[in-house]
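Attaching the record inline, Q. Sequence:
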Amino acid sequence: MANTRLADWFGRPDEELLRDASWPAAHEDLLGELEAGRVRAAERGADGIWVTIEWVKRAILLGFRRSGIVRFDAEPAPFFDKAGYPPRSFAIDDGVRIVPGGTSIRSGSFVAKGVVAMPPAYVNVGAYVDTGTMIDSHALVGSCAQIGKDVHLSAGAQIGGVLEPVNRTPVVIEDGAFVGGLAGVFEGVIVRERVVLAAGVVLTAATVVYDLVHGCERRGEIPAGAVVIPGTRPARGDYASSHGLQIAAPLIVKYRDDRTDASTALEAALR
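Structure, as predicted:
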């Protein structure tokens, strides 16, 4: 099916789709288009605004509803998962480097040439990972997350996806961003180009980020080139004040410069 036909097919009411006997063929077409990068769960417009493609997310959810749990034989032990989303297989011509040690990339995800996945990493269905990106050990790319070019997801980084609700923009990490070890980005937060998130930074839709450079507060989006570190702010209330309690508060302490670029550069020899 062409993309417009897929959009029309999956655009019908759920009750009708669940009864349609041609679902397996449409599902396979959907997975193929996602893996080729011709269909995405979200796209960036010319104005820089990310737009959710709702029918894609609905179609992915339908695959879970219509699939039963089956056994997949693998080493060192079998696993049991939804039949509609087996692990994705790769060929040498795909140009993706998957280092041995437990990495799993689910079908229906786009992984571009030049991507490196260190063990054990996980990429979920609907995710889009562009060329030159490094997914380090124990890093997660959640369902429908959009990862740009030359991004570094450091060890233990957790990139939430946001598969549902279907009208919610997934987490986006734009080109050239650096996500430090054990950092987490969730709930549709957008991290713009060349942002640096230091180790341990956690961002959700409700997280208040204090921009010390421009003297303002930000939520839901980190501007291009920002360098964000973990910080704290005093908790409110007499009890909190009397006990010296603090609340996590990420801080933008600077915007990228030559020194930052040097400290976050990816070593070409490792690729």
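The first helix runs from residue 3 to 10. Residues 51 and 186 are 17 Å apart (CA to CA).

More tomorrow.
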